[in-house]
Every structure is written in structure tokens, then in C-alpha cells.
Amino acid sequence: MRELLTPGVWGVVATPFQGSALDIDTDSLAGLVGYYESIGATGLTVLGVFGEAAALTAAERSLVLEVVMEETRLPLVVGVTSLYTGTAVDEIRSIQAATGDRLAAVMVQANSANPGVVSAHLNAVHQSTGANVVLQDYPLASGVNISTEALISVVQACSFVTAVKAEAPPTSVAIGHLTAALDVSVFGGLGGQGLLDELMAGAAGAMTGFSYPEALIACVRAWQKDGYEAARDALLPYLPLINFEQQAKIALAIRKECLHQRGLIADAGVRAPAAAFPEVLRTGLRTHLAEAAKALGPNPAAALTTAGRH
């Protein structure tokens, strides 16, 4: 019987940097991970696209996992950067050595439009490592465009796939077809921009980064308990910020700047090839953060928004 990844919100963790050299800021990383746990995240997704894993050395990826393991007891999904089987296996073995039984699954991107190629890749990975897999369909990052029908075929052929992360727009359409055909957890991403429609299409929750993850958690919990109207009401005040953050080509920089302004990381730096935060959007960022802070209200566990800070 297929094991399913637990429904809910899996926070995709940013990798904070510091200084002109953009070294990893382990103190900010520790604080951010602890914050996710304090607000009730189901689990954490580490070294994903938003974690800038492709811009980290192997030693830096190991350091990130070491900090995460020390700071939280939440289950982990860890991203695999390579699309090639041999190097993916090497990455996964290093991940397993660092995480042990805390590893819920590794997140592997679809590496071909051909379902036979993807299935062979995943089966080889699983046979070599024994790891459960979250299959990620994110063409913007991988450069691979695979049909929903092909994804269904892959999951049917791979019983160790515990979830699909569907990030090829329109995500609600893909999620609707995936959940109708498969007994597997399907998660949306893309900053929560399509979360309500994804939940209505059958999504198990969200696996994404957003500077107010409290909103995503509240939305998914409301959906699970009371359905659409409660979920809509929980998410509605944050939709302008979600939309603002999820702007093409600059989403990473905006989100890290928002996390910085909230006091959740000390520096908003991103590594190339990511673009830096456009200062022309500073007023918009202040406005959206102030509105989100007002919606969140007093929360002793939360870092206070300081939207006017530079």
C-alpha cells in the first residue's frame, strides 16, 4: 500500500545569506526553522528551488541540513538538484546520512517529458537509496514540460512516490486530474497563489514559501475543518501580498525581502542568477506587509512586521 505524505502546509525554507560574500547565515536559518515549527507547519521542505539549493556547494547543503536537524523535530522533505540519475543518487545518500529517520521523502523533479524515462529515473533512485519520493513538476525550474497524463502514468508505476508537487500552471486543472486518478497526496506551490482553487480541486495542502506562512496554515486548517468559505476568509486578507510576492523573475528576491522586513532573517541577499529586489517596489512592499500584519493581529509567537525599515 502506498505511503502518503501528511496533508497540511510544508513550509519551503529559504536559505538566508549574510555579508558581501553571501555566506550562509546559520543563525537566521535556525530562527526561521524554529518559527515554522512554532506556528504549526506540518513539515519543512529544505533545499528546494526557493532555498537556492542549485547555488549552494555540497558542503553548504550539508550545513543547511545540519542546522535544520538541530533546530526542529518536524519531518523533512529535502530537494534534489540533479536531473541525472547518478548524481541524484549521490545527493540522496548524503541527505540520508544527514537526516536519518527524519527524512519523510526526497523531492525529485520530473527530468523528461517521456513518462518511461521519468519512471526509470525514479525507480533507479529508489532502488539505490530506498527513499520515498515527492515528484515535482516545476517546468520553470527544470525546463521540462511533462503532461498531466504522463505524470499519472509515472506515479502509477512508482509505488514509492508519496506525493506530487504540481507547479505547472494551470495548477488547479492538473491537481484535479491527478487527485481523480491517483491515491496520492498532491500539493500546490507557487507561493500559495492558487491555494483556494487547488484545495477545491483536491489538493492535500500547500508546499511553498510565503512570508506569512501563518496565512497558509490558517487557510488549510479552515478548509479541513469547515470548507471553502472559512478557508477563503482566512486567506483573503493576504492575497494582495501573495500576488505581490509571486511576480515573475523577482519572486525570490521579494519574498526574502519580506522575510527580512518581518525580522525572520537578518539579510535579504540572493545569489546569482537570482535578481535582486527592485527598489522601485519598496512602497508596494511596505503597503502589503502593513496590511498583512494588520490581518495577523497581535501574536506573541510571531515576529513583528517593520514595513518601514530599510
What brief labels describe this structure?
single chain; alpha/beta; 8-stranded parallel β-barrel; two-stranded antiparallel ribbon; globular; disordered C terminus
Structure description:
It is globular and about 50 Å long. The chain has one domain: Aldolase class I (TIM Barrel, Alpha-Beta Barrel). α3 packs parallel to α4 (115-129). The protein is built from 13 helices and ten strands. The protein is of the alpha/beta class.
Q: What's the structural domain tally?
A: 1
Please, what is the CATH homologous superfamily? Aldolase class I
Read across the widest sheet, the strand sequence of neighbours is 1-4-5-6-7-8-9-10
Distance between the termini: 52 Å
- Gross geometry: globular
Rg, rounded, reads 18 Å
Number of helices: 13
Uncertain runs with pLDDT below 50, 5 residues or more? 300-310
What proportion of the residues form beta strands (DSSP E)?
5-15%
**CATH class category name:** Alpha Beta
Number of strands: 10
Helix content: 40-55%
Order of helices and strands: EEEHEHEHEHEHHEHEHEHHHHH
- Main β-sheet: number of strands, strand sense, barrel status? 8 strands, parallel, barrel
What is CATH's topology name?
Answer: TIM Barrel
- The appropriate CATH architecture is Alpha-Beta Barrel
The helix-and-strand class reads alpha/beta
Residue-averaged pLDDT, rounded?
Answer: 95
